[in-house]
């Protein structure tokens, strides 16, 4: 099966440090691997409306929701590229994940079954030297993958605040060279295992 990587860019500015780091990692993918890049700022989703107790969800077929749903279902590997904003995911990425709740309840979609066994990855740039501040972001992605029955490849962390800063983070650039080559384990909730989730 051909691997199809979907890169979802969650920054509020183009060519930010997170995107630069993600592109460096993507450069190492084999030539036969498909890549698709979608900027969530250019394809904004509407605010998520929780209808689980009110009505059935209809499958979106047009606009940003239709585009992102179809792209998500087609991907074997889903890469969330979100800067660290207030110690967690950016608002566009969080809204995208909120829409998963609706897609999970859309009749005939089999959203969870389709994503089960596929791989979720993360890439983020942060302005802190202490990488532990990214633990809430890492936890959100790991737990989302665990709920969906997905594999979790961890999060590629880089340091940078001003545009281009991450390109001076030699440790992050070194990790980027082999990030997607690693075998991603099946995601587990923290309480289901004794060892901590390896994210870096």
Structural class: alpha/beta
Per DSSP, the total helix count is: 6
Query: Mind telling me the C-alpha Rg?
Result: 16 Å
Strand order of the largest sheet: 2-1-3-4-5
Spans of at least 5 consecutive residues whose pLDDT stays below 50 are 196-200
Helix-strand sequence: EHEHEHHEHEH
Sheet bearing the most strands, described? 5 strands, parallel
As for the CATH topology, it is Rossmann fold
Query: What is the number of E strands?
Result: 5
Indicate the CATH class.
Answer: Alpha Beta
| CATH homology superfamily | Flavodoxin domain
- Give the integer mean of the pLDDT values: 91
Question: Roughly what percent helix?
Answer: 25-40%
Q: List the domain count as a whole number.
A: 1
What's the end-to-end separation, in Å?
28 Å
GO molecular function, one term: oxidoreductase activity
InterPro entries: Flavoprotein-like_sf, FMN_Rdtase-like_dom, ISF_SsuE-like
Protein name: NADPH-dependent FMN reductase-like domain-containing protein
Domain NADPH-dependent FMN reductase-like: 5-115
